[in-house]
Amino acid sequence: MSSNQHPMLNVAVKAARAAGAIINRAALDVEAVRISQKQVNDFVTEVDHASEEAVIDTLLTAYPSHGIWAEESGREHGNAASDHVWLIDPLDGTTNFIHGFPVYCVSIALLVKGRVEQAVIYDPTRNDLFTATRGRGAFLNDRRIRVSKRTQMKDCLISTGFPFRPGDNFNHYLRMMADVMQRTAGLRRPGAAALDLAYVAAGFTDGFFETGLSPWDVAAGSLLVTEAGGLIGNFTGEADFLEQRECVAGNPRIYGQLVSILHKYSKFATVAEKTDLSKTTEQLVDPATTPGADVPREHGTDE
Q1: Which residue ranges form the domains of the chain, and what is each CATH number?
Q2: What does the sequence similarity comment in the record state about its family (predicted)?
């Protein structure tokens, strides 16, 4: 931990590393991990619970008057009336973890009067530590990071998340993906939204979009993105997105282009936009007939 870091960020880093150690030990024999389902395709493991407990214990030992808002235990810990609230996702990418697919992370953010002020995302597999304090920049392993400088969608790598819960509108999402995919160099679905946002902040990807996300999925990543020079909001470009369950992020130029593509899919779209979309949402986009679409290009086989 750096002496130059904000004291609260140092505590969050300590908590994230404690959780990461639990995750790494469990990953050595992942088949022995007990798994249950919150709903179809939505898993929770004993590792999620143990990781969350380690984070909460570390945070409340240092700051017993703070509030806690965690994925598995909700708001049952800490001071619910506090202006300082920690948002915790103890294992983002649980489905990846239980399959041994090494893309998952611990995500911790501190909200002060509703605004994200501190952020930690820790990837225990790679020992990558992403940190940010409002006004002090974003860092990966103590190295300053910035969003990418690409300006054209056709050159960009965009990440997303697919719908997987009962009731998700698959046709709607397929249309959205097709609208984005045909304009980019590639679309990726790593499976951990917090890490997706950290990768936007680091410039590894140029943009990200997803629906159905909870505040603990995106809080830490949102500060990383903005402190790295990027933008984040809902599909219509509004910055107050944390509890709206739709998120788009990117470097400033790509963010604007993504919003121009995705705004009609927003729950806040105009009636006219929703009516127009409903007429075609059952059909997959044909790049040759979509107005304004780029000329179709051959994609490589690295998908």
Answers
A1: 7-144 (3.30.540.10), 153-280 (3.40.190.80)
A2: Belongs to the inositol monophosphatase superfamily.
